[in-house]
Amino acid sequence: MSWLNPGALWLLGLSGLITAIYFLRRRARAYPVSALFLWPGSQERPHSFLRWLWSHIGLLLLQLAALALLVGALADPVLYAPGRGARLLAIFIDGSASMRARLGSGQKTRYQQAIAQATALLTDNPVARTVIIQAESHPRLLAGVKSSRTQALSALRASEPTYEGNADPGELLELLRSQAPESRFEQIVLFSDHIPRARLPESWQVHLVTAAQPPGNLALTGFSVRRQPDGHGYDLFVKVENASAKARQVSLDISLDDRTILHKILSLAAGERLSDSFNYQGAINPGEGLRFRASLSPLPGEVFIADNRRYALPPQRRPPRVLWVGPDNRLLQGALRALFQARLTRVKSLPSGSDAAGYDLIVAYKTSLPPLASGHLLLLDAAYPPLVSLGEEQPAGKWQAERSPLLAAVRPEEIFVAKVRATELSPQGQTLLRAGQWPALYVYEAPGLRLAALPFSPDLDNSNLLLTVDFPILISHLIEWLEPQRERSVQLTSGSELPLQELSSGTVQVVGPAGTQCSYPSPDRAVPCGQAERPGFYTLKNGSAALEFAVNLPASESQDIESRAGAATPVGVGHLPVQGQGNHKGLPLRAARPLWPFLLLAGLALLALELSLFEPAWRLRLTWPLLGRHS
Amino acid sequence: MSTLLDEEFLRRLERLQLVFRQRSRGRPLGSRLAPRAGMSLEFAEYRQYHPGDDFRYVDWNLYGRLDRLFIKVFTREEDVPVYLFVDVSRSMEIGDKLAYGVKLAAALAYLALKDLNRVAVFPFASRLQGGVPPRSGARQVFEIFRYLRGLESAGETSINESLADFCQQHHEGGLAILISDMLSEEGYQEGLACLRWHRFQPVVLQLLAPPDLAPLAGGEVRLVDVEGSGRAKPAYLGAQTLGAYRARLSAYRRELEAFCQQLSCDYFLLSTANPLEQSIFETLRRGVFLK
Fold first, then answer.
1. Is B211–A55 a contact, with Cβ atoms under 8 angstroms apart?
2. For position A484, what pLDDT does the model report?
3. Which chain A residues contact residue B185 at CB under 8 A?
4. Interchain contact, A30 vs B224, CB within 8 Å
5. What confidence score (pLDDT) does residue A326 get?
6. Average per-residue pLDDT in chain A?
7. Under an 8 A CB cutoff, do A45 and B248 touch?
8. Percent of chain B residues topping a pLDDT of 70
9. In CATH, which of 3.90.550.10, 3.40.50.410, 3.40.720.10, 3.30.2290.10 is domain B7-24+80-286?
10. Record: contact A34-B216, CB cut-off 8 A
11. pLDDT band at residue A285 using 50, 70 and 90 as cut-offs
12. Which of A467, A482, A447, A462 is nearest to A364 (CA)?
């Protein structure tokens, strides 16, 4: 036996109140008689302890027993007779974006059909305890094992499909195991519009109930934008798929902000997948963003309005996070901020064993760095033993430059340096610039580590480097080489977390695709998945800084539009056959036996008995017909 | 009427008749043959002719044989007043004795009225209440039944004072039927003696209910007198206490019965646990009250 609503058992605490009231109000019950003068003065006392106990707390025991029975009825106990019913029922309901598809206007969505079938399954098995999990890329528990049937049904009906991708069966099973051991689940029913591609454990019995008819659709499955290498214009990449059984013609429209920049008619044969690219050389109007939208219209067959639209932003460079180690140099630090919008964190020294993994670049100035496991290091008159060991300053000689992209557009003869360090360098590195016999620019690369060293003081009393145009060019080359992946990913899939941590501390405002705004006090916390669940453009604002993201459906969701003519063979779905489409009949679920009606009747009967014993008038009326034989 | 006695029961009552053992001076037109000369068709006796007698009653055949004048005397048919005293004190609530007593009174009133007797109903508790004065005629049964249905219990029992009140107002004699549990601490002797003194024929119908006759064990209780305001007595209803009570009640009943024998009046103990038909057609017919 188990309880479907165990929270009600807390009401047993009322027994203390009932006991207190009983003893506060306890007195001998009135017994009306016709002639008091015929009754003798009684000195009699109960003979046995049980009678004494009954005369003193009999009614209390009846009250407590009635309370226990009524509370037990509220707790909804269920008796599982062997072979009579399912102990636990698990329902996975696919909440991925493709469940939003509907068969024509006015029809139910796949998700609504799945809800109807799941509700019917629960109604047919009214007392089975149920765990309901919405299956998407971030599975959500709709009703836990402690939820009552009413709560489970309410949660199921209130749920909505997301824009997320398909669920990972492994994560689903982990979530299910968090509710109860596997062995307690006798049935698992999956309501979905597709067959999971991942293999499930053989021991699990999974009934797959498809929620809709096989669709025939045509979707935009890919869209991306890239800035052309020469910096003029953009390349647009488009993937379109015709999953229907007929050849289709469809118009493709691409817009920049609200301005249409491309209109093209595409012809696709049945089942054809088309990839195409376009070039946009048009001007970007002042005040215009770089929000590219692609859309297909019209969509035949099933209506899944989310998979005919795609959003894209050109890759954006993000400011590097720089750790400055050593004494301050306001001129150099200001130059880094001005040139690269670098965000500097300053420390005097870096202790041994420090972790600098959170920084894109470590700039060491007139100090010595401890060994680091990985990182990108720019050494300005600084040491990094054993790769770079500084010696005494020596008079600089004539410049000797190697041919290297890092020195492109740099003219060393314009740079004056009075003294350079007599430096010992690791032979695995490469000296690109020498001042006489001493190295002036040294680079080193190993897995996870890149290092560039300028072993001379760049201060104005030693060099004019900071005053020449070569300085920003050289530093720019070095930083590009040291930290080449500075292009921030601006493409997210729906359901992903927005990377708030890229912004500095303070309130972050998130503007969603529908213009919705919400604020988060600290960027340290990841935004819940739901915040980026709708496809479209998101903007994160933090003071004057703003980051933009384009959120699209996962590619797999658009691919789920394909016809499942071959779905009769389940792919990795346990050993049971797939059930009929849209039909949950035949699932061998049986109801367990509810006990609450019996407990309720017994509790009420006990209350009636207690009342009849307590109230003489009641007792007389109740027992009168039975006492006739005593006369 | 239907709520008190059903038609089948009334048809069975038609076969019964009240028995009057005592002479009383009733009014003519009754069905009872009084031992006085009257105008009925039933011959009673002869007596010698005296001057002034009506010649129509002279038996001329007897004169021819004996040569003496004799007058034929016929019996006189007269009614008997029947007084029904119904106890409406609070103690009649216990075991629903009042409802039982009302039905019993209705049945007896019907018996009396069908024999062309006069019937009066007097409820009483601490004092005699107004009631229905003596009435005759079959149609009066409706009014009497209506009155009986409206009776409600109230007050304490005082049999002596109630019957003394009655005796001061009525001297005609007749059948006085007392329907009560007769449980009065101040007694009943004076009241019954008063009736006897005024030449009434008292009939005591003592009504008791199962809670009076055989109360059940109930543990620690507060015995509350339903008639006394706030009179109560703590007791433990065990075998010992209940046994003592039953002994006292038995002695009380024996005393009442002996007193009734002493006054030559009828006494019957009726239990509300028995059906009314059983009480009337078996218990009361065993005596000389009904035939």
1. no
2. 67
3. 35, 37
4. yes
5. 93
6. 78
7. no
8. 89
9. 3.40.50.410
10. no
11. low
12. A482
For residue B187, what is the nearest residue in chain A, using CA coordinates?
Answer: A37
Q: Which of A630, A36, A620 is nearest to B95 (CA)?
A: A620
Contacts of A630 in chain B (CB under 8 A): 210, 213-214, 273
Distance CA A596, CA A602 (A): 10
Residue B185: closest CA among chain A residues belongs to which residue?
A37
Cβ–Cβ gap B236/A40 under 8 Å: no
Q: Which of B220, B221, B226 sits opposite A34 (nearest CB)?
A: B226
Say yes or no for a CB contact (<8 Å) between A35 and B91: yes
Residue A125 has pLDDT above 60, yes or no: yes
Q: What is the DSSP letter of A502?
A: G
Model confidence at B57: pLDDT above 60: yes
Position A163 scores a pLDDT of 85
Nearest-angstrom CA–CA distance, A420 and B242? 124
A-to-B residue pairs, Cβ atoms closer than 8 angstroms: 126
Percent of chain A with pLDDT over 90: 12
CB-CB contact of A462 with A456 (8 Å): yes
Radius of gyration of chain B (CA): 23
Superfamily, domain A88-214+564-591: von Willebrand factor, type A domain (3.40.50.410)
CA distance B32 to chain A (A): 37
Cβ contact B211–A38 (<8 Å): no
Of B23 and A197, the structure prediction assigns the larger pLDDT to A197
CB atoms < 10 A from the CB of B141, how many?
A: 20
Using CA atoms, how far residue A487 sits from A79, A291, A451, A482, in Å, is 62, 17, 20, 14
Other residues' Cβ atoms within 10 Å of the Cβ of residue A516: 11
Q: What is the pLDDT of residue A38?
A: 87
CB contact under 8 A, A42 and B212: no
Task: Find the range with the poorest average confidence among A69-83, B52-66, B107-121, B248-262.
Answer: A69-83
pLDDT at A589: 45
Q: Do B272 and A36 touch (CB under 8 A)?
A: no
B231 and chain A in contact, CB less than 8 A:
yes
What six digits make up the tokens of A119?
A: 């509700």
Out of B220, B223, B272, whose CB is closest to A33?
Answer: B223
The partner residue sitting opposite A38, judged by closest CB among B218, B226, B252, is: B252
Ranges for all domains in chain B classified under CATH 3.40.50.410: 7-24+80-286
Which of A26, A33, A629 would best serve as a mutation to test chain B binding (most B beta carbons within 10 A)?
A33
pLDDT (tens digit per residue) in A432-482: 999 888 899 999 988 888 899 999 988 888 888 888 888 888 888 888 888
A576 band by pLDDT with thresholds 50, 70 and 90: very low
B57: number of Cβ within 10 Å: 15
Q: Write out residues 17-36 of B within 8 Å (CB-CB) of A.
A: none
Which of A127, A140, A126 lies closest to A93, judged by CA?
Answer: A140
- CA A538 to CA A527: how far, in whole Å? 12
- Considering only the C-alpha atoms of chain B, give the largest distance between any 2 of them, rounded to a whole number of Å: 89
How confident is the model over A236-269, as pLDDT tens digits? 999 988 877 788 888 899 998 888 899 999 888 8
Rounded Cα gap, residues A294 and A308, in angstroms = 8
Residue A580 has pLDDT above 50, yes or no: no
- The two domains A88-214+564-591 and A321-482 share their CATH topology (first three levels equal): yes
For domain A321-482, the CATH class is alpha beta
Q: With 80 as the cut, is the pLDDT of residue A72 above it?
A: yes
What is the residue extent of each domain of chain A? 2-32+48-80+596-630, 88-214+564-591, 321-482, 489-552
Would you state the pLDDT for residue B38? Answer: 55
CATH classification code of A489-552: 2.60.40
Give CA–CA dist B177/A263, Å, rounded.
Answer: 117
Chain B interface disruption, residue of A26, A27, A29, A36, most B CBs within 10 A: A36
Note whether ipTM > 0.85 here: no
